[in-house]
Amino acid sequence: MHGYRKPIGRRGLLALTAALAATAVAAPATSAAPAVPSASPTPPASPAGVVRALEGAAHPLRSTEPSGSTADLRALSAMVRHATVVGLGEATHGSHEFFAMKHRVFQHLVEERGFTTFALEMSWSAGLRIDEYLQAGSGDPRRIAQETLAGSPWERREFVRLIGWMRDHNRRHPDRRVHFMGDDLGAPKLGDHIFERVLSSAGTARPEALPRLKELYAGLRPFDDIFAHLRKPLPQRKENAARAQEALDLVTEYQEAGGEDYAWTVHHARNIAQTFAFATIDLADPASVTAAERLRDQAMADNVLWWQRQTGRRMLLSAHNGHVGYLSAHPDMYPRTQGPVLRDRLGRDYAAIGFTFAGGSFLTKDASLDGDWKPVSVAAARPGMHEHTLDRVGYRDFYVDLRTAPAQARAWLDRPRPVYDAGSTFTTDPLPTLAIGRAYDVLVHLNRVRVADEL
After folding, report:
1. How buried is 279 (Cβ within 10 angstroms: 0-12 exposed, 13-18 middle, 19+ buried)?
2. pLDDT tens digits for 119-148?
3. What is the pLDDT of residues 43-53, one digit of tens each?
4. Are 384 and 42 in contact (CB under 8 A)?
5. pTM tops 0.85, yes or no
6. Phi, psi (degrees; rounded to nearest 5) at 94
7. I want to staple 121 with a disulfide (CB 3.0 to 4.6 A). Which of 64, 286, 319, 439 is the partner?
8. Which letter, b or e, does each residue of 128-160 get, where b requires 16 or more Cβ atoms within 10 Å of its Cβ?
9. What's the confidence (pLDDT) of residue 16?
10. Would the pLDDT of 176 be above 80?
11. Is residue 400 helix, strand or coil?
């Protein structure tokens, strides 16, 4: 879940728990002065042979902007040609180049590989609203973005442009329509419309269950502020979760007889139940926090798998590096994320693309419930960091297939080293470490990034 108006951890809602539990660390980097890793003996520079090996395997990028030719992406699309779901990460929330590159890659995959769904690390119900607009709903891209992405790092011009391009594509190609989905739980809100969808459909399919369903949902809807809900006593939150689960059980009883449309009703009810189950987190119990993170990543993976199975569409999945890759830079908090689940279920049909950057600016927050997203800058990567080695390659921006990279490069990248990794909060002391070569199938490295464009 994206941060919206609250700090939700490294990549989503759960970092909110860190804030509430007073375990999050305020970001020491500021927009006034670039942050640098803490002073320590400078590690030796990476071997020149590693850089030469990477140069031989790297493919230069013409641009990160979605306009113009995408011929330079053909090798990238060939690297993921078998995949029905491609995870495309971001090393930070709120950098222009990451967001623009997602638009560019999705546009290329739509036009060259027949992809039709853009999935984003945002609430399922908000994703439904965006998709309604894409399929000829009323409004305009800016208003839809403000309505569905308000307060998040994605409430930026880059996503307005993406939504606008998708809408225009559907006008020009009504026989090859593209779709938008949110794969996350209901934060910062579910909204009342998802409850109404369940009640309306279930009332037609099994009217005898409608009174009980209304009774169960009466105390739960509209669920417009998960952060306020998390401040309620834990027993009350557990009771609400039990009511949401009972409602799901009622709706599910008629799934086989309900037909294809009813399957969507069941999944809406499932998302409601997942959200309330997640909200039973005990903020004073580290084990509960970790379990909630596992639940969330499992739910995101299940939503992606359900959508792909239900629609048969090839998908680009946009989320933080830590959600699409196979390893987390914070394994104590995120022991098993969405990426490994998708790899285990899909095998070769899933591919993970990660991002790195050697310096620049992005958006992050302090560890406070009501903090705003603000620009933060970091200095050029220092020797010893993965990004320092990558930035010595002779291309400003490039991508490389980590699975087929020369052995010398793989051996270097397969070792954990410090990396820039920023979610809703960010700290440089110490920087997290990650074995990049084992975390992704393909890596995109950018020399510099800047803050995404405000609306």
Report:
1. buried
2. 999 999 999 999 999 998 899 999 999 999
3. 544 578 999 99
4. yes
5. yes
6. 100, 30
7. 319
8. bbbbebbeeeeeebeebbeebbeebbbbbbbbb
9. 45
10. yes
11. strand
381-384 contacts, C-beta under 8 A, 24 or more apart? 381/420, 382/36, 382/37, 382/42, 383/42, 383/43, 383/44, 383/45, 383/46, 384/42, 384/43, 384/44, 384/417, 384/418
Beta strands in 23-64 (DSSP E): 59-60
- Asked if 236 contacts 276 with a C-beta cutoff of 8 angstroms, the reply is no
In this structure, what token pair is assigned to residue 430? 């110490």
Question: Could you tell me the sign of the dihedral formed by the alpha carbons of 7, 12, 16, 21, in that order?
Answer: negative
Distance CA 238, CA 240 (A): 5
Name the token pair of 270: 């499932």
Using alpha carbons, select from 450, 454, 429, 423 the residue that is nearest to residue 359. 450
Query: How many residues does this entry show for the chain?
Result: 455
Q: What does the block give as tokens for 371?
A: 């903090």
What does the radius of gyration of the chain's CA atoms come to, in whole angstroms?
Answer: 22
Q: Please state, in angstroms and rounded to a whole number, the distance separating the CA atoms of residues 406 and 409.
A: 5
Separation between Cα atoms, residue 187 and residue 283, nearest integer Å: 17
Nearest to 29 by CA among 453, 451, 455, 444: 451
Of 178, 187, 90, 203, which Cα lies nearest the Cα of 148? 187
In the numeric block, which tokens belong to residue 77? Answer: 């699309």
Which 8-state DSSP code applies to residue 283? T
Q: Which residues pair with 315 in a beta bridge?
A: 85, 117
**Inter-residue contact 186 to 226 (CB < 8 Å):** yes
Q: Are 104 and 340 in contact (CB under 8 A)?
A: no
CA distance 64 to 62: 7
Which is it for strands 315-318 and 59-60: parallel, antiparallel or unpaired? Answer: unpaired
Cβ atoms of 417 and 433 closer than 8 Å: yes
Q: What is the DSSP string of 129-166?
A: HHHHHHTT-SS-HHHHHHHHHTTSTT-BHHHHHHHHHH
Task: Output 246 or 18, whichever has higher pLDDT.
Answer: 246
Q: How far is CA 155 from CA 158, 168, 334, 433, in A?
A: 8, 20, 26, 29
**CB under 8 Å to 206, separation ≥6 — which residues?**
253, 254
